[in-house]
Amino acid sequence: MSMSFERYMLDMVQPMRDDLTRIGIQELRTPEEVEAAIPEAKGTTLVVINSVCGCAAGQCRPGVAQALQHDVLPDHLYTVFAGQDKEATAKAREYFAPYPPSSPSIALLKDGELVHFIERHQIENRSAADIAADLTGAFDRFCR
């Protein structure tokens, strides 16, 4: 029995995608989807750069899920998957200047302007609860 590498990777990462989509975050899988969503979004927009790494699984995705239980939330919720949807991720990263590419990472934009950014190095050594607290603080500041 032979399985293509692409099929294997799709099967492997689907649960990682589901961690975010099942809590209401919309995936943007192409550059065109990113272009149609991010620059046109009015109000506040959360963009999660998802990844297969351990800090995405242990801290980033659970931290985002906890933060989305808060009473103040962004108007729009999106995710792109680094290493999987490469072109969509590259397009999304254009909105996160001056920050270099980082995955996982989390961006909060207000009317298309970056107002808060959590880089990988701010994820990998913190707990999910710490990341949730960071995000809810940003939600309180920018999403009211």
Question: What would you note in describing this structure?
Answer:
The protein is α/β, with parallel strands linked by helices. It has a single domain (1-143), classed as Glutaredoxin, CATH 3.40.30. The protein has helices spanning 5-21, 31-37, 54-67, 86-93, 128-142; strands at residues 26-27, 44-50, 76-81, 105-110, 113-118. It is globular and about 50 Å long. It starts with a helix and ends with a helix. This is BrxA/BrxB family bacilliredoxin. Belongs to the bacilliredoxin family.
Backbone shape: globular
* Helix-strand string: HEHEHEHEEH
DSSP helical segment count: 5
CATH architecture classification: 3-Layer(aba) Sandwich
The top-level CATH class is Alpha Beta
Major β-sheet profile:
5 strands, mixed
End-to-end distance, in Å?
A: 55 Å
Roughly what percent helix?
40-55%
Which superfamily, in CATH terms, is the homologous superfamily?
Glutaredoxin
Provide the gyration radius in Å: 15 Å
Our estimate of the beta-strand percent is: 15-25%
**Helix-strand category:** alpha/beta
Give the tally of structural domains: 1
**Order of strands, widest sheet:** 1-3-2-4-5
Total strands: the figure is 5
Mean pLDDT: 95
- Identify the quaternary structure here: single chain
The CATH topology is given as: Glutaredoxin
Task: Please supply descriptive tags for the structure shown above.
144 residues, alpha/beta, Glutaredoxin, five-stranded mixed β-sheet, 5 helices, 5 strands, globular, BrxA/BrxB family bacilliredoxin
